[in-house]
Amino acid sequence: MRSCSGQEGERDVPTTTLAMHMSDGLLSAPTALLFAVVAIAGLAVALANARADLDDRTAPMAGLVAAFVFAVQMINFPVLPGVSGHLLGGALAAILAGPWVGALCVAIVLVVQALLFADGGLTMLGANITNMALIGTAIGYLVALALRRYASRSRAGLLVTAFVAAWVNTVAASCGFVLEYAIGGAAGYGTGTAALAVVGVHCLIGIGEGVITAVTVGAVAAARPDLIHLLRTGKQAKEAVR
Description:
The chain is mainly α. It has helices at about 30-50, 60-75, 90-95, 100-115, 125-145, 150, 155-185, 190-225, 230; strands at about 75-80, 85.
């Protein structure tokens, strides 16, 4: 979510906008530090396991996935009046490049966005990586893995799997936001208000995420189904999506 409803300008009224890309000050310092540690630990695990998934064929795919997620995240689509969303990319990256490589791809995108475009505060980078690169990617891939038998049977099954995984990925990432906010939110909103605003809006944003993910995975499947990590590791990979 690029932005969510916020109130501005009056004393004792929250002025920090709730958004998936958390800005500085949205969480307390101890909470930000806690999730910085969580992010570093999670990325270390991802880096250690990603080596097994990278070879001469998949390494270029990982680069393309990171570049695509970065580019598409710059494009917002309207959700509600005054509220827009953009691709998170966790499920997409995991389906195409695997969960470990996918998490690293999304994390790299978030770091570049924070450093070069101020999209998300630097002190909130650990929380943003935890939500979008770790939680979203992991949950999205687990959903895709659970539906892999359907994804392997037909092109329609693959598209539906990608859509569902992406929708769940988006909502799960927003739930991570709520968890972090419940632990140490510092924006002046109650946790219930934050949960209703962020999760509710991301249920809608997830539809756009699902469509973009399904279209992208479908395009890759039409040209090179052998490059899709989710299918490559399935028993019926060779027959899939032809």
